[in-house]
Write a structure and sequence with these properties.
Layout: E1 3-11, E2 14-19, E3 22-28, H1 33-42, E4 47-52, H2 53-58, H3 64-73, E5 77-81, H4 87-95, E6 100-103, H5 105-109, H6 111-121, E7 126-129, E8 132-133, E9 136-139, E10 144-149, H7 150-159, E11 164-168, H8 181-190, E12 195-199, H9 205-213, E13 218-221, H10 223-226, H11 232-240
Length: 242
């Protein structure tokens, strides 16, 4: 079964969701991030995706205290991204409770440093973020598009030992219109051993089942849970099937 990994995106210590990566669309949701994370754990989830949106915009980790509170308040395995640009950012994320760190913009802008981190920390702790818009990798909290093709980007990192990738199709992220099944099929056809984590567009459990039918190992779900398109009870029932 495709694993559901709930997402908590943070601005100023609060849970928010964007649409298509646009900070101007930020919607703040009620609830303490720690309490929300506990509700996911109580529903049978084992992992949590945490994004420091302030960090992604400011080029350094900002919401490390919120990460610490979530990590100390739950037993979830946390992957953390947003603002990871320097050695101290990696250390800070891990010291404050992340089990894995997602390399986003830095993986595009400084592949040499990113490959050093991949070698130093290992492929079990480093996830490569491959966020794409129209087939090209985007950076800086999705504010900028690069000229790097997603397949070339993935090929380089996988050939150097990367085994985990989060890929978001920005065009559908936060829209609840359904994930980019074709994109993920293409990635897995080329890299069948990859632990691919889909992200963006999930609007209900039917979308998760479609990803499962396409053999996608895991999917990050954010807005669909916040908006009640997938209830915590449905999440619990789904997790019991695994």
């Amino acid at each position: 079964m495709t694993e559901i990994i709930p997402a908590i995106d943070i601005i100023d210590g609060k849970c928010v969701r964007l649409t298509k990566g646009d900070y101007g669309t930020a919607k703040i949701y009620d609830g303490n991030p720690v309490d929300i994370a506990k509700s996911y754990e109580d529903s049978g989830c084992r992992k949590l995706h945490v994004v420091d949106l302030d960090g992604a915009k400011s080029q350094h980790i900002v919401n490390h205290r919120t990460l610490e509170k979530i990590a100390s308040g739950t037993g979830l395995t946390i992957d953390f991204g947003g603002g990871v640009k320097h050695d101290e950012d990696i250390r800070m994320a891990l010291d404050y409770g992340a089990s894995k760190v997602t390399l986003g913009s830095i993986a595009v802008k400084d592949s040499k440093l990113s490959l050093e981190w991949l070698s130093q920390y290992g492929s079990d702790r480093i996830i490569i973020g491959a966020d794409t818009r129209n087939g090209k990798i985007s950076t800086s909290g999705w504010l900028h598009d690069s000229d790097v093709e997603i397949m070339d980007f993935l090929d380089m990192y996988i050939s150097h030992g990367a085994t985990q990738v989060i890929s978001t199709d920005i065009n559908v992220d936060g829209t609840l219109r359904g994930p980019s099944i074709g994109l993920y099929k293409d990635i897995l056809d080329r890299f069948p051993e990859l632990f691919l984590i889909a992200s963006g567009g999930v609007g209900g459990l039917n979308d998760v089942y479609s990803l499962n039918d396409s053999a996608v190992p895991a999917v990050i779900v954010g807005k669909a849970i916040y908006e009640g398109k997938i209830t915590l009870k449905e999440l619990e029932t789904y997790n019991l099937q695994k």
